[in-house]
Amino acid sequence: MARQHYTFTSESVSEGHPDKVCDRISDSILDAFLSEEPEARVACETFATTNRVVIGGEVGLSDQNKLAEYMERVPDIVRAAIKDIGYEQEKFHHATVEITNLLHEQSAHIAQGVNASESKDEGAGDQGIMFGYATNETPDLMPAPIQYSHAILRRLAEVRKSGQEPTLGPDAKSQLSVIYRGGKPVGVSSIVLSTQHLDETQTSDDIRKIVEPYILEILPQGWVTPETVWHVNPTGKFVIGGPDGDAGLTGRKIIVDTYGGAAPHGGGAFSGKDPTKVDRSAAYAARYLAKNVVAAGLADRCTLQLSYAIGVARPLSIYVDTHGTGNADPAAIELAIDKVMNLTPRGIRTHLGLNRPIYARTSAYGHFGRTPEADGGFSWEKTDLAAALAAEV
Question: Shortest CA distance to 34 belongs to which of 378, 354, 257, 270?
């Protein structure tokens, strides 16, 4: 039987965190190529440090002339992403940062395994395992610690960018230790918030006075009590931030991107990868299916695993665990999943509409637990498959 009384902790990082800057750049480059060609192939990695951004990886367009044109646009895409995040520091500024573009054409050996032909369906872009998870402990069917950690930083970014809190900087981290009673979140035992600030005279107490009202606005009423321990900028000053303070790299925040450690992770990062890469698209499909299982009332919690082999279209396995909360046999749910959704790479992309420039927005504050958008963004957060799953089970 699952534990009913415990404390669980998750962290989030803001869009100005060095690793998230790199995720944003990689996904912005991906969006640019998908805007030109929905079937574009992109595997883009970014490294950032003081006054420097380095882009590497592979890209592919059917029109070689267009490929050359888009390669030339990469520096402008990088600068626009950094500007939108808000970096105008002396040693990391969108206008002056040095950019090295080492992108090259996609490997023909990888393409031959992935591309469809007359004799085979389009295969997965790599081998690997992907996990999806959902729980009914929050309205978004996400674990509470990661969902509220994201929400705090997203709110602080809003007031920073609006000018309401002009002394806050782009780089920030949050962490919540959430108290569970009877398996449900009921409060917060500790709150950790570190945020970059632009005024060197500000103290930790000054920063707490700024951020505390927004944190209380985000957390459910009654969760913060006199016993809640606060750690706001516990090291003191945090003026030097972003890639000037610490190097960043695409794909280093995979637990922040997913479930905050409340569920397994297959190991593959998302940002900078086009949706033929099952690291990304199948992880989105797994979340979509797990969420629909819970939305259908088939379980209170659901972990779902998919596995793939490079060049092979269909998943090698589908596994469901309802953690003792299910109203149906997990094996029956697995069979239903295979019936209601085509889990080949192309089937996933078609069902969820993934061949669109919708990825830069996913690069911070979580890929899951977001609101589906009119242009197809966060389509994997819909619960439109719940009735079909329930009918099959």
Answer: 354
Q: Is 83 a catalytic residue?
A: no
Question: Kind and range of the H or E element at 42?
Answer: strand 41-49
| Structure-token pair, residue 186 | 């009921």
Supply the pTM of this predicted model.
0.95
Helix (H, G, I), strand (E, B) or coil at 291: helix
The residue type of 171 is D
Q: Catalytic annotation on 122?
A: no
261 against 65, higher pLDDT? 261
Catalytic residue among 37, 39, 58, 165: 58
The string of DSSP codes covering 284-336 is HHHHHHHHHHHHTTSBSEEEEEEEE-BT--S-SEEEEE-TT-BSS-HHHHHHH
Of the residues 238, 270, 368, 378, which is catalytic? 238
Residue 45 CB contacts under 8 Å (≥ 6 apart), including other chains: 22, 26, 55, 56, 57, 249, 250, 251, 272
Partner residues linked to 41 by β-bridges: 60
Residue whose structure tokens are 């090698």: 316
Specify whether 273 is catalytic.
yes
| Catalytic residue, candidates 126, 279, 321, 381 | 279
Is 238 annotated in the active site? yes
The letter for the amino acid at 212 is E
Q: Check residue 361 and give its pLDDT.
A: 98
